[in-house]
Each structure stands twice: as structure tokens, then as C-alpha cells.
Write a structure and sequence with these properties.
With 311 residues, this protein is an all-alpha fold. The chain contains 13 helices and no strands. Helices cover 73% and strands 0% of the residues. The C terminus is likely disordered.
Length: 311
Amino acid sequence: MTNPAPVPPARDPIGWINNQPYLLLSLTSLFWAGNIVLARHVGDHVPPITLTTIRWFGVFLILLPFAWPHLKRDWPVLRAHLPMLLLLSAIGFAYNNAISYWAMQYTQALNALLIQSSGPLFVAMWSLILFGVRLTGAQLAGIAISLAGVLTIILRGDFSALSSISFNKGDVMFASSLVSFGLYSALLPRRPVTHQLSLISFTTCCGALMLVPFAAWEFSAGATLKFDFLTLATLGYTLIFPSALAYTFFNRGLALIGPNRAAPFFHLVPVFGSAMAILLLGEQLRLFHLVGYALVLAGVIIASRRASARP
């Protein structure tokens, strides 16, 4: 009697997703696109620093039950690298998010999406300054092609419209948040080796604690939450999608392919933003959308390819 054929092991969907950097980074951009549009819409309902503080405390509490065993195991490593982790908390969670939300009170979503397109350049700048890591020819070409696609979408195919765009203090503030996040992205591959839940839960908690004094100042100045459905929906979306999921996905994607190959995925943010406008706001799909989407996708594919091995 022959033995039965071995049963193949069941697939682990979470394990599979955890090793798909392009999917993880694409979902990150999708969630962040919704966050930019939402931040502009609810600026008078939720004060920016208060929103950021609640955001990161909420993410920490959501992740804590899952992260606790890893935090206990990784605590000696976290404590030994406390200065690095505090820096990552400050630039990647506290300053970056608070200043970007604050900036949206003074600028338009169009300007924010334009400035967001410079994200890969800041990642490349910090990687070069700190570690001497240069962009490859493919990465540089991919960033340039995808940036052309972003401009095609945002400017609706009319590049002469660049001359009519004006920038204000909100744009400078938003740009500074990208400088900060570029530094976070460049430093992240040098983080201590821990479980990804240990890293994200520890840094979100530290980032929230750093913001508490500024949130108290904001409250004392008269900026308070408006408790209504819009505020609750904003907090719900912000806690889950552009925070807990997006940062976990981004950190993992960056660990798998590195900052310079991951950076062009910033350019998917305006792509998803425009697609949301078409699907949710009834904007008509036009030729410049398709051209822009094709350019961004081509640029991301070119820039994120692994360089061929040298002999």
C-alpha cells in the first residue's frame, strides 16, 4: 500500500504580504494620499498637534497587545540604542506629522501634493550626506520619469500652470516635514535589529510623549477638538490606515529594498489622490491622467529595480 502524498503546508497570507515590498509601499502611498486630502478637509475640526498626539498614542495602544511579547524580548536592544530611537521618534513621528498637519491650515492640497513629489530627492540627499550612498542611474532616471508623471497629473497636462502657483508659509512648513521624513527614511536601515512591532510601537509612544507639552500649549491657546461625526471618522481613519498600517508597511518595505529604491513610491501619493478625486468626487478621467499614471508607474518600476550584481 503506497503512502499518501504529503499535504502541502497551508499558505500564510500575512507572511507572504510581509515579504512583498512593492505591495507594502504601494498601500502606504494609498493610505497617505487619503491622509493629505482628509487633513485639508478637517483643519477647523481637529487642531494639528492634538491630532498628531492622539494619532500616535492611539496607534501605540492598538499595537501594544500584539507588540508586548516582542517589546519584552527586545527591550535590552531598544535601551542600548535609545538615542537613535528617540531621534527616529522625533523626526519620523512627532515633528514630521505635526508640522504637516499644521501646514495644511495654510496651504492647498494641490501645493501639498506638488511638494510631496520632492520626497525621493530628500531621501537621496540624506543618504548621500550621511552615508555616501549615491543614486544609481536607473534610480535617478526613475525618479525623473515618475516626477514628470506627477506633474502631468497635478497640472492637468498644462506645464505652463507652474508659473501661476504661489507658495506661502504653509508650503515651507510642509517641505520641512519632508526634509524630516527624508532623514527618517535614510536612518531607518541603520536602526537596531528588532521585531518590526517593537520598533513601531516604541517610536510611536515616544513621538506622542514628545508632543504632549505642545498639545497642552495648543489647548491653552483655544484650539480644541470639535466632537462630531467628522472628527470621530477622521480619528478612526488616521489611527488605522495612514498610521498603524502605513508606517508598519513602510518600515518593512524600506527594510526589504532600502531607502533609495523605496523613495520613488512617494510619487504614487498624488496618483492615488487624483484617483480618489475621480472615484469619490466625480472628477472626469482624462487623457492627462492616463499619461501621468503611465509615467509614474514606469518611473517607479525603473527606480525600484535591484541593481545587477557586479562580478
